[in-house]
Amino acid sequence: MRKPRQPPAFYTSALNTNHFNTMNTNSNNNQDKTPAKKELESIKSDMKPKRFLEVLSPSDCINFEPPADYILAGDCHLTRGNITVLGGAPGVGKSRAALGLAVAGAKGVDWMGYKVTQQFKTLIIQCENGMFRLKGEFESTTLVLSMRMCALK
Predict the structure, then answer these.
(1) With a threshold of 0.85, does the pTM exceed it?
(2) 114-129, pLDDT tens digit by residue?
(3) Cβ atoms within 10 A of the Cβ of 64, count?
């Protein structure tokens, strides 16, 4: 019977492993420590575990004070520091809408009737559209027209 595979070391938090404790630390005297050991201890003391899931209470939500630049587009449709998912049936124009949003955000102009409150950078991760299709999207009349209109403002 095969042993179950262990996850790679980089999947586990450095604070939960003995990665930093593998060196001989019998002496607590700073004179006996090499610069590398001192630096390693400094890094270890500065590390904090990452929070992947935050549980909020109703009072946490009520007491939330958004920063002035929190809302980027629409009525909280797109907010700074959050992930936005654009979903829909195949062929309805999700990719084109996402590219249009990226252009509107870069130029600071309204997008599909939603007010863009300030300019922002956008990262679009394309998993299905190749260079040929993206070329067509950027050359399309609607997107080029919107980019030209944005350039005029």
Answers:
(1) no
(2) 999 999 888 877 777 8
(3) 9
Domain boundaries along the sequence of the chain? 10-46, 69-152
Do 109 and 145 form a contact (C-beta atoms < 8 A)?
A: no
The helix or strand, by DSSP H or E, that contains position 36, with its residue range, turns out to be helix 35-46
Burial 121-134 (b: 16+ CB within 10 A, else e): eeeeeeeeeeeeee
| Residue 41 to residue 35: CA distance in whole angstroms | 10
Contact, 95 vs 137, CB < 8 A? yes
Q: How far apart are the first and last CA of the chain?
A: 68
**What mean pLDDT do residues 2-20 have?**
51
* Token pair 């929070």 in the structure block, residue: 51
83 vs 61: CA distance, rounded Å: 18
State how far the Cα of 63 lies from the Cα of 110, in Å rounded to an integer.
Answer: 30
